[in-house]
Amino acid sequence: MRTSEGLAQEQLYRGEGPKLQRALLLYAGDRDIANDAVAEAFVQAVARWDGIRDPRRYVWKTAFRLALKELRDRRRVAAQVPERGYLMPEPLVDLVRAMQRLTQMQRAAVLLHHYAGYSARDVARMLDSTPGSVFVHLAQGRKRLRRWMEDSDD
Amino acid sequence: MTDLRDLLGRADGIEVDDLWPKIASARPSRSVPPARRRVAAVAVAIVVAMGGITAAVYGFSGLGHAPSTTETSPAGPPGLPWPLPPPRFGAAHGWYAYSVAPSAALDPEGWMVAFAANVPLARDDLYGQVNGQPVSWIHDGYLVNPATPTHTMRQLGPSDAMIVATTMNGFTGPDVNFPARTLPLRLRDATVEHSWEGQVAPNVPEYRIWAYAHGVGLDVRVYFGTQHPSPRVRAWVDAELARLVIPGVEAPVATLAPLLSAKGWHVVRTNRSTVDNGVGSVPLAQVWASTEPFVLADLRHLEEQGQLKFAEWPAITILHHLPPDGVLIVATTLTYPAHSVESAPSDPAFPPTGLPLSLEGADVQPWRPWVNATVRRYEIDARVGNVYVVASVFFATSVPSHALLQKAQQELDTLELPRT
């Protein structure tokens, strides 16, 4: 029999998991890294459920850190455009390419702030950074993306 | 021009896999992020009574160790073997230290954890169940789930502290988050989080020190039982941090356990055991290696007691059930400071020798026949430099075969002693 806790955990996944997977795909440029990080983050959240004050923020933070660690381990910080045949229309491949023009911190900051909707202060806590640094990353990231969008529009 | 939010909104069109079935069915894996990896490790607090060490423990001081491994990987830091042996804390009175043992329980990613607290680990942080089977979270290598020492954290008092130190691979040099630092790490270098994600109690702050040192990434976290630890408690922690030893880096203090590392053996070790020699408690360091999995009842005793007393033998269970082709090795090291009075060579019971120790010439005796009448102990007492070592090799047969002796000798050949 499922417990209310189990239901809450699944609801958390249903609500946040897909968006988080997409964000991490943009962040890492690799579907395997994204899926593994999300799965692991949720497994950890489930295991530590009672000790987590904000499960949503916990899984986002944990998943991003896992993905970052995996990227470091694989030493493939450089862009890896996912295979197009894998449910990835051309505009989205372009989006992934665009994100890879940013640094890791810029990508993380932009995705957590503009895509996931976290405040700069929350983003700073998630990335173990300071709000000031996050603002800088956001500004630089937006600048690069705008440049890319202008080039695309041309 | 396309708005940024609209641009990112395109991502909602990406189809994703449903991971929930995988999440729901998974037990916690060993892949944990550096920032939240609390505890892993093989716990070892060994309690042994061996008549052979009686003469050596009087006045005994500390231990040192220089580990090595034969496995290497291009993923490891330059110049260091990989995966690395785990970090560890040197023996010290008043601290309980745990470290991942070089055994099959190692995290294949090479993330190793040392753990130290000036309070015993809470029982629920040590033991639990997986699929209905009792496990030791630390010893059995379940690095995530309740191995996060939240129960211990909740019980920390104003004078208590707990340290979790993780070494990480994948670093090619210092970066913004992991600046270059030299050992020992100091509490004053820590970033203090009075409120942090997953905080178990409002009175428990997290002091975080990230560093890159000697080719290794370090994630060290200190937890206190108060938001305002006293200077004395902070000094205790700094002293313990000074005893943190990273593989490949010369030990700041010579207080480490010996090492046995042949593949296919189950190994537990401790830097934090003490024996009451009638004058006072002195620290010992030990390593156990067995062809058989260690028995939880024995480990529980080791992990919870941490005290060596004569006439006690906590590994009775494993010896009682040792199969005819089984072997248990217990190596104890006792190290005197290099220039101490005790370091002068004088004890004929511990003749100067070199490594590897040999089973040939070992003193063979029955061992506690009321426990297991067939058990024989091969004891080797030796002195290597200023390190006293007592190696006991147990066979569950009165006449071990040549092959069995050879198997034990091969494991004994891997013995490394503290370097002082």
Question: What features would you describe in this structure?
Answer:
The complex is a heterodimer of chains A (154) and B (420). Helix content of chain A is 74%, strand content 0%. By secondary structure, chain A is mostly helical. In chain A, helix 1 packs antiparallel against helix 2 (31-47), helix 5 packs across helix 7 (131-153) and helix 6 packs across helix 7. The model of chain A is unreliable at 76-86 (pLDDT under 50). Chain B is globular, with a radius of gyration of 23 Å. Chain B folds into two domains: 69-245, no CATH class; 266-412, no CATH class. The chains are: A mainly alpha (154), B alpha+beta (420). At the A-B interface, helix 1, helix 2, helix 3, helix 4 and helix 5 of A face helix 1 and helix 2 of B.
Give the topology string of chain A: H per helix, E per strand. Answer: HHHHHHH
Radius of gyration of chain B: 23 Å
**Approximate strand percentage of chain A:** under 5%
Work out the number of β strands of chain B.
Answer: 17
Shape-level CATH architecture of the largest domain in chain A: Orthogonal Bundle
Largest sheet of chain A: none
Structural Rg of chain A = 16 Å
- Measured distance between first and last alpha carbons of chain A: 58 Å
**Biggest interface pair, counts:** A-B, 57 and 46 residues
Number of helices of chain A: 7
Helix content class of chain B: 10-25%
The biggest sheet of chain B amounts to: 7 strands, mixed
**How much helix, percentage-wise, in residues of chain A?**
over 70%
Summarize the structure.
The complex is a heterodimer of chains A (154) and B (420). Chain A is mainly α and 154 residues long.
